[in-house]
Amino acid sequence: MPERGASNNGFTPNAPAIMAAIAAADHARNGVDFGPFLINVMMTNAGQIWSSEKGDYPISFLFDEYGLDDGGFHSLGGAVLTQATETTASRWSIYAKPHAGAQTGLVQPASFDWVLDDAGSGNPNSVDYFWPTPPAGCQGVGICFAPGAGPDGFTPPTSWCVASTSLEPGLTTPFWSDAGQGWSHHSGNLSAVSLTDTPPGDKIRIAPRTYLSDEAVASGKFGSSGWTLVGEKMMLPVPGSGSTLPPPTFPAPGSLPPTVLHAVAILPGHAIVDPDPYQASAFYYLSAESSWSFGSAPDPANPTYQIYYEQLTQADLRAVAGLAIGAKSGVVIPPTANGLLSIDLNAEFWLRNNVGPTDDTVTLPLPPAVRVGAMQYWQRTVTLTLWRCDGSVAAGANYFAASVRPVVR
Length: 409
Description:
Elements: H1 15-25, H2 27-30, E1 32-33, E2 38-43, E3 47-52, E4 59-63, E5 74-75, E6 80-82, E7 92-97, E8 106-107, E9 111-117, E10 127-133, E11 138-139, E12 144-147, E13 161-163, E14 167-169, E15 171-176, E16 190-194, E17 204-206, E18 211-213, H3 214-219, E19 227-231, E20 260-268, E21 283-296, E22 304-311, H4 317-321, E23 324-326, E24 330-333, E25 341-344, E26 362-365, E27 376-388, E28 393-406
Antiparallel strand pairs: 1-2, 2-7, 3-4, 4-6, 5-7, 8-13, 9-10, 10-12, 11-13, 14-19, 15-16, 16-18, 17-19, 17-25, 20-21, 21-27, 22-26, 22-28, 23-24, 24-25, 27-28
């Protein structure tokens, strides 16, 4: 087994540059370039307009008549909070903003069409559902809510429709039922939109945490259906990133082996389960740094090495970010991890899926070129670190990759 590579406590050689780049970008304020438009991950500041302890579980509908607007970012649909799903991350949703001087990816709805209300619920407050009807070439992404006043009362907050070219069909799953509420004229049932199981490819796919009215979908009158966002992978510009790892050599006495920074991927925070329940970050940053680890095969007659994942922090990076890490996958977030985010980072992190292995940890024979002397070899260690917007570290791991080289003294 190789010796452990670079430490993952946030004090890797590239940590100062990564933290400086995170601070300079200030993505929590400025958002991130998603390709067709900017996105931000924001905790809704909307007020509660309707809540109930009945139904599947307690729920609150939220509304902000001033548009949920912060720096030009607007929502893609209405927001709700439920007791069953409420976590720190569940309060965060995707907001969007056009590039300066361009509105090709986002447009205002042609109209907000009234769908239903909670008539008969007996609730002291009322809520109306509206569908953002899109102009040609665009789609509404999520149902919107407003204080109950009928079709001609309050209109929903400003909400974007999205160009069809930046969308892919999503899955809809039951989210909340109004059972026991007494809604006498309409069904308030909601479905959540999540990613399909399409394998991650060369784009990033994001479900923005939006909802559909089951009644609106069933009626067919509104063109209401589930959509998810697709855009360019987002990388943090860090001086020195994009480097390749030089061939291994023994470092001079008192020095450390070289460590290079491949890339720092930007991940939307609504899809990350922070290991600290009191922490929340609009975005998280996954960095990949490589160095060489020194190893020695224990059995000269049958020399082998391993591709495996090594947890370095108390929190398991795989559980925190939904990552699949190992021989079978390389480093990816599959759409089935949480239904909110899907991305393949193997190209950016100079990794690959390994043909053949069916498990994330595998033992493979050393190649003939390495079978010399005491079977000593170098193995590439990829140090993965998940950073928050404030520069702190949420989780980290080492991934011992398939790259092995003979030891030359």
